[in-house]
Amino acid sequence: MSKVIRAILTLALIYGAYTETGIFTALSLLLIFVSIEVQSRLTKRALDAGQAGQ
């Protein structure tokens, strides 16, 4: 459930940035949030694989 709320809040922030400052700021925020999400998923996957190997 928290992932859904986080996604909604992220989209709201990106939309707010788009309406206030333009597309480049919104795209920058989108790339930042996507990179953070991918990094956290990769870290979780690596930790899970490390625990399974022990």
The proportion of residues in beta strands is: under 5%
Category by helix and strand content: mainly alpha
Give the mean pLDDT. 87
- End-to-end CA span: 31 Å
Residues in helix, %? over 70%
Number of helices: 2
Q: How many whole angstroms does the radius of gyration measure?
A: 15 Å
Q: What is the count of distinct domains?
A: 1
String of helices and strands: HH
Count of individual beta strands: 0
Protein model, in words:
With 54 residues, the chain is mainly α. The chain contains 2 helices and no strands. The longest helix is centred in the C-terminal third of the chain and has 30 residues. It has one domain. α1 packs antiparallel against α2.
List the helices and strands and how they pair.
Elements: H1 2-21, H2 23-52
Keywords:
54 residues, mainly alpha
